[in-house]
C-alpha cells in the first residue's frame, strides 16, 4: 500500500473521453502502489497477456482511480478493500458507474499497529496512544498520500485525543523502513498495517483494538474485491469471466509480496514466479475462459508460462 502520476498525467487520465466502443484487446488496470495490489494486478496482467491481450497499468491514488474509471479511462481495479475504502467508494456505489464484480480475497485486515514491545508496555488500543504522545513523538505513520484519509480524519476530528498529532505520509516502503529503524532501537512507533503482507512475519507487531468505528471490527477485518467500470463485463465477457474467477488467499499473497519486497523482483516476475508455485490455481481461474482468438485460455496461459 507508491508514487502517483504527476499532475499532468492525472489530467490526461481523468479528462480523456470514453471511447464509443470497447476495445477488449487492451485491458487498462489501475493500482495505488500497494505491494499486495501490485502483485494481484500483475498476476491479472500475466494471465491476460497469456490470453493474447495487451495490458496497461497506472499507479494512482484511490480517488483518482475511481474518477478515471468513471470517465472510462480505466477498466479494472483489483483492490477494493471493504470497509477500509468505503469512504472513497460511497460516491459511486449507487450510480452504477463502478461495478463490484467479485471478492478476490477474504481474511484481510487493515488498521493501526505497534511493535509488540509497545503493546506489552500497555498500548493495546487507539485510546492508549494520546497518553504516550512523547514516546511516539506525536506521529502516526501512513503510506502514500491519498491512502491515509481515515488516519487524517481521526486527527482532524481530534478522535482519541490525537488532534495535535502529525500524520507522516510517504510510501509503503518508506513507512516500513521507518518501522525497521524504530524496531532496531526499540523506540515507539504506531503505523498503518495490514494483512496480507510480509510485515506480519518480518516484524513482531500487534494490531490495536478500538478502531472499529473507523476501520471496522476484527482489526479492520476486510475483504478485497475486483471492480470494473460500468458495463465492462458485458463489453468484454472473456476478461470479465476471468475476473470473476480470479481468487487469492492471504498466505499466497503474502508469499508473492515477499518476492517483491524481499527478493526485489518486479511485480510481473513475482507474479510469474507465484503462478509457477501454484499451477493448480490456473484451472479454477481459467475454467471456461477463451483467448482473444477463441481458444481455451488454460492451455494458452500454461504454454506462455512454460508450465
Describe the secondary-structure layout.
Elements: H1 7-15, E1 26-31, H2 35-50, E2 54-59, H3 62-70, E3 76-82, H4 86-93, E4 98-115, H5 116-120, H6 133-136, E5 139-141, H7 149-156, E6 166-168, H8 172-184, E7 191-195, H9 199-202, E8 205-207, H10 212-215, H11 217-220, E9 222-229, H12 232-235, H13 237-243, H14 250-261, H15 267-277, H16 281-286, H17 297-305
Parallel strand pairs: 1-2, 1-3, 5-6
Antiparallel strand pairs: 3-9, 4-7, 4-8, 4-9
Helix pairs in contact: 1-3, 2-14, 2-15, 2-17, 14-15
Domain ABC-type glycine betaine transport system substrate-binding: 26-275
Pfam families: OpuAC
GO molecular function, one term: transmembrane transporter activity
What would the average pLDDT be, to the nearest integer?
A: 91
Helix fraction?
A: 40-55%
Strand content is 15-25%
- CATH architectural designation of the largest domain: 3-Layer(aba) Sandwich
CATH class of the largest domain: Alpha Beta
First CA to last CA: what distance? 31 Å
Which structural category do the helix and sheet elements fall into? Answer: alpha/beta
CATH level 3 topology of the largest domain: D-Maltodextrin-Binding Protein, domain 2
Per DSSP, the total helix count is 17
- Sheet with the most strands, sense and barrel status: 7 strands, mixed
The CATH fourth-level homologous superfamily of the largest domain: Periplasmic binding protein-like II
Shape label: globular
Question: Can you count the beta strands?
Answer: 9
Evaluate the radius of gyration.
Answer: 20 Å
SSE sequence, one letter per element? HEHEHEHEHHEHEHEHEHHEHHHHHH
Amino acid at each position: 500500500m507508491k508514487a502517483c502520476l504527476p499532475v499532468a498525467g492525472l489530467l490526461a487520465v481523468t479528462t480523456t473521453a470514453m471511447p464509443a466502443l470497447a476495445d477488449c484487446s487492451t485491458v487498462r488496470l489501475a493500482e495505488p502502489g500497494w505491494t499486495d495490489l501490485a502483485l494481484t494486478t500483475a498476476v491479472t496482467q500475466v494471465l491476460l497477456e497469456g490470453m493474447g491481450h495487451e495490458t496497461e497499468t497506472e499507479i494512482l491514488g484511490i480517488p483518482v482511480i475511481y474518477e478515471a474509471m468513471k470517465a472510462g479511462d480505466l477498466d479494472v481495479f483489483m483492490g477494493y478493500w471493504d470497509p477500509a475504502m468505503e469512504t472513497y467508494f460511497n460516491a459511486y456505489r449507487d450510480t452504477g458507474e463502478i461495478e463490484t464484480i467479485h471478492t478476490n480475497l477474504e481474511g484481510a485486515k487493515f488498521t493501526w499497529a505497534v511493535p509488540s514491545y509497545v503493546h506489552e508496555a500497555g498500548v493495546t488500543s487507539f485510546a492508549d496512544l494520546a497518553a504516550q504522545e512523547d514516546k511516539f513523538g506525536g506521529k502516526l505513520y501512513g503510506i502514500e498520500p491519498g491512502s491515509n484519509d481515515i488516519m487524517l480524519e481521526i486527527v482532524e476530528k481530534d478522535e482519541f485525543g490525537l488532534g495535535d498529532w502529525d500524520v507522516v505520509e510517504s510510501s509503503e516502503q518508506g513507512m516500513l523502513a521507518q518501522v525497521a529503524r524504530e524496531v532496531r532501537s526499540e523506540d515507539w512507533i504506531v503505523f498503518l498495517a495490514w494483512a496480507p503482507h510480509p510485515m506480519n512475519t518480518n516484524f513482531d507487531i500487534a494490531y490495536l483494538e478500538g478502531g472499529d468505528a473507523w476501520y471496522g471490527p476484527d482489526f479492520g477485518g476486510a475483504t478485497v474485491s475486483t471492480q470494473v467500470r460500468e458495463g465492462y463485463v458485458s463489453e468484454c465477457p472473456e476478461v470479465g469471466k476471468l475476473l470473476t474467477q480470479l481468487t487469492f488467499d492471504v498466505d499466497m499473497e503474502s508469499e508473492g509480496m515477499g518476492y517483491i519486497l524481499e527478493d526485489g523482483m518486479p511485480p510481473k516476475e513475482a507474479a510469474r514466479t507465484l503462478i509457477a508455485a501454484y499451477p493448480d490455481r490456473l484451472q479454477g481461474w481459467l475454467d471456461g475462459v477463451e483467448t482473444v482468438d477463441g481458444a481455451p485460455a488454460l492451455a494458452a496461459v500454461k504454454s506462455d508460462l512454460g508450465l
